[in-house]
Design a protein that fits this description.
rod-shaped, 2 helices
Length: 153
Amino acid sequence: MFCPTTKVKARGFSFTEIMLAAMVLGLLVIYVFTLISESTRGTASAYQQYLAEQVAREPLEVFRFLGSIKVREHLNTGIADYKFNEWQKIEAVSAASGIERPEDATAFERKITVTPLAHKDMEAILVQVNVRPQRGSTGLDQLTRSTIIVNQP
């Protein structure tokens, strides 16, 4: 039963409560966007590290396949477009070998150093590959990978 003399008190939110809720919601949104940004940055960094690893490992695998004798024969000339003892830009497609690389790999350059080794009756070569970004945009420092290739009888 409705009585017109009974006062019903309307209940709502105060301005302070609304501002406090907006501030908490704003802080949560900022936190979520920060997490997303850091995740994206970490993913990009891992991808650049992966590319640098692949650029460094490629000549090591090629030279392992060719063997130390073949590599030793070309110490002064290099093999295909793998030049020794000089920084080279990485091309998306190798002109000499036809090796295709991701377009992002062109952000790097590498230097291949080949050092002949001999111990008693064993001959080998030490292949060292240094990779660095051409531009400072990748955030990576220089990466070095190496291997020793021994003459097989």
